Amino acid sequence: MRPLFFILFSLSILSFYTCDDGDVITVDFDYDETFQVCGTDGLVFYKTKNDPSESLSIRITELDSIGEILVVDSLTNTYEADFALSATNVFNYRTYSNTTLPTSGLFCSDVPLSSVKIIKDIESTSGNVHIKTVLTEDDNDGIPAELEDINGNGDLTDDDTDGDGIPNYLDEDDDGDNVLTKNESPDPNGDGDLSDALNTDGDDDPNYLDDDDDGDGILTRDEENQSPDQNPGNDISLDGIADYLNPAVATKTQATKYRQHTIYQTYVVTLTVSNFDLQIISLDVFDFGVLDDSDLSTSRKITPPFN
């Protein structure tokens, strides 16, 4: 069996292929490591390049929309599926007479682009396509997720300092004081060492894990004496210092709810093709790359129940 390896896209890999009509095609596999997707009735995964103008594309008729490959398992945050290449699920290599290919409309267009002329269209109708999606969620609070394992057991899901049901690595406000963690200077110099985190009252807990930052006996979230808007940072009664950081101000205004939290999501979709018969690529497994789509970076919002 031939060794299993992947194309390194930063290298220019030349392949020579003789067509049935006797023509010899020189293929320069200097493609980007990313690919695009389009379609609503069957998806087309594709990548293009210029000089020379070429494309690689894979159509999967079993998929109706990109949303289907973003539905991940709730436990593993992963989607994986295999699809067989066939007469309808085709892996294509095409060359074009155009000097520069259009940035859109080359695939999935209702009406073929009249300005695009295909010279060669080589296809594989046998083989396997493997699609994998991995969802990563984070709170973007300035603390790497691995440093939010407070109990040190390797499980990020059971660290919930404020008991609001959101683990710290997804919680924008780890201590539930309605001051965002990123605004409580958990890592002032950004070196990944949290030992210098801001600690206004000098107790055992830095501000981002302390629900009474100034140690005056009034919970930070209850020190909204000017504007009760789930943001103690804009309540200043004395000396130009926010009340929740000023032990000289100990006036309580009972909080009634937590602020809304944002959890940031990033989907990474990869695609590989194996056991195909596209003669211009003499590999056992072809790494098609990583999907480039702005919709893969999104977020979800949640307001924890107040306690």
UniProtKB/TrEMBL annotation:
Residues 140-239 are annotated as: Disordered. Residues 140-149, 201-216 have a biased composition (Acidic residues). This is Thrombospondin type 3 repeat-containing protein. It comes from Mariniflexile gromovii. The lineage of its organism: Bacteria, Pseudomonadati, Bacteroidota, Flavobacteriia, Flavobacteriales.
